[in-house]
C-alpha cells in the first residue's frame, strides 16, 4: 500500500499495489510415504522437473503441513502404519483449504479393482502402482502441476483485472473531487476577478511602445509603481519573458493594420516571480487624426491559466478512467469464459467432444482478447503497421464480398470506384479492418435496411475513400465523441466502442485524415484521406495458409526471456520437426552464435532484459554470420522501436503454429549467399558489440 497525506487535512487516502504479473509461479509437491526408500525414489524421479518437493513420513505429519502450507499435488502412500492413505485422504478432503488439492495414491499392495475403486472414492485423481515407473510418474505429475500453474496464473490475472476495476473507481472518485474543487476555485476566481482592479494604459504605437499613461492599479499586480513604466519607456518590455517578447512585439505592431490586439505573456514582477498578463488594446487616432496611440487594459491571468491546466488534468483523468473501465469490462468477460471452462475441466472428466467445445471457447476468448489488444494499439497509434503501395480500387473490389456478408441482405452495397488508378501508402490488412468497421457501424445505423455506398477519388496529394450510409445519422453530441475509445450508443454487450477509434488511429498513424459528416435522419459519411503513392508494390507477401505448413530439419536459435513463451515456442518448433537451440538473453545467444554450432535461423524476441534488444542482437548476428536468416517477434515493440524493426521480418505475438510455420518456411526457402568470416574476426566483432 502507498499512503499520501494532504497538507492541512486530516483525511488519508490509500491505493492498492497492482498484482505482480511478472513474478514467477512455483509449484510445491507433498510426498507422503513412511518408507524412506520409496520417498527417495519419488524425489529422484521428480527432481528434474524443478518443482519444490516436500516429504512427510506419515499421514499425521502430512496433515500438520497442510494446515499452514499450500501444495499443487499430494503423492500419498496407501499402506502406512497408524493413519493409512484412505484415512489421510478423507481428512484432507474434509477441509475446505485442501478439498480441491489433487491426490495421487501410490501403492504396492492394494492392486485389485475394489481397492482402486475405493481410492477414487476417497478423492484420488489417479493411482500409481509401485515400483513406480519414473517416466509415468513424471508425466502424471507434469499434467497436474501444469493445470495448477495455469489456474494460479488465471487467478492472478483475475486479481489484476479486479485491481483495474478498483483503480477505475478510485480515479472516478478523485475526478469528482477534483471537479468539485475546480468548481469552487472557479467561483472564487470569478469573485477575485470582479474585485481586482484593471490596469488602464495608453502607449505609443511605435516600438518600443512607450507608455504614456498607466493607472496606479499596476502596482497591485506587478509590485512596481506606475511611474516606473512612464518614466522609463523600455521598463515594461524589459521584464517580459525572453521567449514571449518577439510574439508581443509582433502582435502589438500588427495592431497598426488590424486596429486592435490581444496578447498574453509572462512578466517578471517585483517579487521575482513571473505572472501571466493579458494585454488587450485598440488603436485610437491622436489630435491630428493619425493613428499614433494605443488604449488598452491589462489583466492578471495567472490564476485563469492555472485553472485551465487543472481542467486539462481532470479531463485526462476522465479519459484514463473511461479507458480503464472499458478494458476491465471486456477482459473480465473474456477471463470469465477462460477461467470458467478451465475450472470445469479441472473438476470433472468429460468426453472428448465436450472437452473440445470448452477448449474452443477458451481459444475464442483468447482470440477476442488479442483482437481487443490490437484495437487498443490502433487507437493509440502504437500498432506495428506494414504499409505498402497498394491499388485501393482493387483492394475494395476484392474485399467487397466480405463486406456484403457483414452488412446482411437488408443493406444494399454500392461501389462507385474511380476510373483512374488510385495508389495509396497503407497497411492493406488494417485498411480492410477499417472498412469492415465502418461497414458494420453503417449496418447498425440502418436497422430497417438501407444503402451503403463506398466511393473513391483523388484529392490533391491524397486518395479519398468515402463510406456513406442512409441511416439514422448522428447528433452533434455523438459526433464530438464518436472516435473516443469505448464510447458507443449501443446497449451494453452489443459493442466494445473501439471500432471507430481503431479507424481513426490507423488513418492518423498512416499520416492520413478522417473526416466525418452526419445529420440526424439523413445518414453519415466517413471520408478516409490516405497519402498517394506510386505504382502498387510488385511483391506482396501472401497470407498465412489456413493449415500448418510442413516444417523441416533446420536448426533454429530461439531467444526468449519469458520461460513459458520459450517452452511453448520450443514445443511448436519441435512439433514441426525443427532442431531447436535456446537462449534467454542476448549474451547467451551470442555465445551460441560465436561457436561453430550450425544455426540456420535466429528467432528472437525484440524486447529483452539486459539492455540489448532483439534488433541489436540480429544486427550483431548478421555481422558474425552474414548468411544467417532472422525472424523477430514481439507483443509490443514501443513507439521508438517501430522503425528499427522494419530492418528485419517481424511476427506479432500472439502467434499460432500455422503462422509461425508459414513465416519460417518463407524465410528458410529463400536462397542466401553464405559468407562466413574467420572465427577470430567474429570474436573481435562480438567483443566490440558487447562493449
Task: Tell me what the structure shows.
The protein is an alpha/beta fold. It contains 21 helices and 24 strands. The strands form 6 sheets. A 5-stranded parallel beta sheet has the order 4-3-5-6-7, sandwiched between helices. It has a 5-stranded antiparallel beta sheet with strand order 9-8-12-11-10, sandwiched between helices. A hairpin with a 2-residue loop joins strand 16 and strand 17. The longest helix is centred in the N-terminal third of the chain and has 62 residues.
Helix content: 40-55%
Structural class: alpha/beta
What percentage of the residues does DSSP assign to strands (E)?
Answer: 15-25%
- How big is the Rg? 35 Å
Low-confidence sequence ranges: 1-13, 378-383, 491-497, 538-544, 639-643, 674-691
**How do the strands line up in the largest sheet?**
4-3-5-6-7
Q: Span between N and C termini? A: 40 Å
Query: Mind summarizing the main beta sheet?
Result: 5 strands, parallel
What spatial form do the alpha-carbon principal axes imply?
elongated
Q: What's the overall average pLDDT, rounded?
A: 78
Alpha plus pi helix count: 21
Number of distinct beta strands: 24
Amino acid at each position: 500500500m502507498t499512503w499520501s497525506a494532504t497538507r492541512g487535512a486530516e483525511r488519508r487516502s490509500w491505493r492498492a499495489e497492482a498484482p505482480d504479473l511478472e513474478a514467477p509461479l512455483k509449484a510445491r509437491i507433498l510426498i507422503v510415504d513412511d518408507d524412506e526408500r520409496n520417498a527417495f525414489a519419488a524425489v529422484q524421479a521428480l527432481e528434474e522437473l524443478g518443482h519444490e518437493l516436500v516429504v512427510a513420513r506419515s499421514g499425521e505429519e502430512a496433515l500438520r503441513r497442510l494446515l499452514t502450507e499450500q501444495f499443487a499435488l499430494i503423492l500419498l502412500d496407501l499402506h502406512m502404519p497408524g493413519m493409512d492413505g484412505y484415512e489421510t485422504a478423507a481428512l484432507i478432503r474434509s477441509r475446505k483449504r485442501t478439498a480441491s488439492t489433487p491426490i495421487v495414491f501410490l501403492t504396492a499392495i492394494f492392486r485389485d479393482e475394489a481397492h482402486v475403486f475405493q481410492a477414487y472414492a476417497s478423492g484420488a485423481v489417479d493411482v500409481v502402482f509401485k515400483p513406480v515407473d519414473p517416466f509415468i510418474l513424471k508425466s502424471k505429475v507434469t499434467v497436474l502441476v501444469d493445470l495448477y500453474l495455469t489456474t494460479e496464473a488465471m487467478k492472478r490475472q483475475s486479481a489484476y483485472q479486479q485491481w483495474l476495476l478498483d483503480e477505475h473507481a478510485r480515479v472516478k472518485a478523485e475526478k469528482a473531487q477534483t471537479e468539485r474543487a475546480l468548481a469552487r476555485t472557479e467561483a472564487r476566481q470569478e469573485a477575485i476577478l470582479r474585485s481586482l482592479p484593471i490596469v488602464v494604459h495608453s502607449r505609443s504605437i511605435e516600438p518600443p511602445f512607450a507608455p504614456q499613461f498607466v493607472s496606479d492599479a499596476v502596482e497591485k499586480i506587478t509590485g512596481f509603481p506606475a511611474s516606473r513604466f512612464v518614466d522609463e519607456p523600455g521598463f515594461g518590455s524589459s521584464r517580459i519573458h525572453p521567449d514571449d517578447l518577439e510574439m508581443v512585439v509582433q502582435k502589438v505592431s500588427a495592431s497598426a493594420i488590424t486596429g486592435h490586439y490581444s496578447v498574453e505573456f509572462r512578466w517578471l514582477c517585483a517579487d521575482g516571480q513571473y505572472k501571466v498578463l493579458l494585454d488587450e488594446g485598440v488603436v485610437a487616432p491622436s489630435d491630428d487624426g493619425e493613428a499614433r496611440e494605443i488604449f488598452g487594459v491589462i489583466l492578471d491571468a495567472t490564476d485563469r491559466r492555472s485553472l485551465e491546466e487543472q481542467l486539462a488534468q481532470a479531463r485526462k483523468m476522465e479519459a484514463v478512467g473511461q479507458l480503464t473501465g472499458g478494458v476491465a469490462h471486456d477482459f473480465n468477460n473474456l477471463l470469465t469464459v477462460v477461467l470458467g471452462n478451465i475450472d470445469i475441466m479441472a473438476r470433472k472428466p468429460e468426453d472428448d467432444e465436450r472437452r473440445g467445445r470448452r477448449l474452443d471457447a477458451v481459444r475464442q476468448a483468447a482470440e477476442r482478447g488479442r483482437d481487443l489488444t490490437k484495437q487498443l494499439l490502433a487507437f493509440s497509434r502504437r500498432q506495428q503497421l506494414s504499409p505498402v503501395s497498394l491499388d485501393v480500387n482493387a483492394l475494395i473490389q476484392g474485399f467487397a464480398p466480405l463486406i456484403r456478408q457483414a452488412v446482411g441482405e437488408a443493406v444494399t452495397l454500392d461501389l462507385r470506384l474511380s476510373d483512374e488508378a488510385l495508389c495509396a501508402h497503407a497497411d492493406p490488412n488494417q485498411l480492410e479492418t477499417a472498412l469492415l468497421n465502418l461497414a458494420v457501424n453503417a449496418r447498425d445505423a440502418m436497422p430497417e435496411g438501407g444503402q451503403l455506398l463506398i466511393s473513391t477519388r483523388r484529392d490533391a496529394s491524397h486518395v479519398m475513400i468515402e463510406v456513406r450510409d442512409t441511416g439514422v445519422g448522428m447528433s452533434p453530441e455523438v459526433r464530438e465523441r464518436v472516435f473516443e475509445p469505448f464510447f458507443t450508443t449501443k446497449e451494453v454487450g452489443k459493442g466494445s466502442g473501439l471500432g471507430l477509434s481503431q479507424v481513426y488511429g490507423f488513418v492518423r498513424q498512416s499520416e492520413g485524415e478522417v473526416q466525418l459528416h452526419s445529420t440526424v435522419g439523413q445518414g453519415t459519411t466517413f471520408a478516409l484521406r490516405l497519402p498517394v503513392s506510386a505504382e502498387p508494390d510488385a511483391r506482396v507477401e501472401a497470407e498465412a495458409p489456413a493449415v500448418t505448413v510442413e516444417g523441416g530439419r533446420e536448426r533454429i536459435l530461439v531467444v526468449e526471456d519469458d520461460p513459458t513463451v520459450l517452452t511453448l515456442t520450443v514445443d511448436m518448433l519441435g512439433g514441426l520437426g525443427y532442431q531447436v537451440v535456446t537462449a534467454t538473453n542476448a549474451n547467451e545467444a551470442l555465445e551460441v552464435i560465436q561457436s561453430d554450432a550450425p544455426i540456420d535461423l535466429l528467432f528472437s524476441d525484440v524486447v529483452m532484459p539486459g539492455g540489448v534488444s532483439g534488433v541489436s542482437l540480429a544486427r550483431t548476428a548478421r555481422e558474425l554470420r552474414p548468411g544467417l536468416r532472422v525472424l523477430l517477434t514481439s507483443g509490443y515493440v514501443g513507439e521508438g522501436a517501430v522503425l528499427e524493426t522494419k530492418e528485419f521480418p517481424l511476427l506479432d505475438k500472439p502467434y499460432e503454429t500455422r503462422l509461425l510455420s508459414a513465416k519460417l518456411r518463407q524465410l528458410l526457402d529463400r536462397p542466401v549467399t553464405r559468407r562466413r568470416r574467420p572465427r577470430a574476426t567474429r570474436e573481435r566483432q562480438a567483443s566490440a558489440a558487447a562493449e
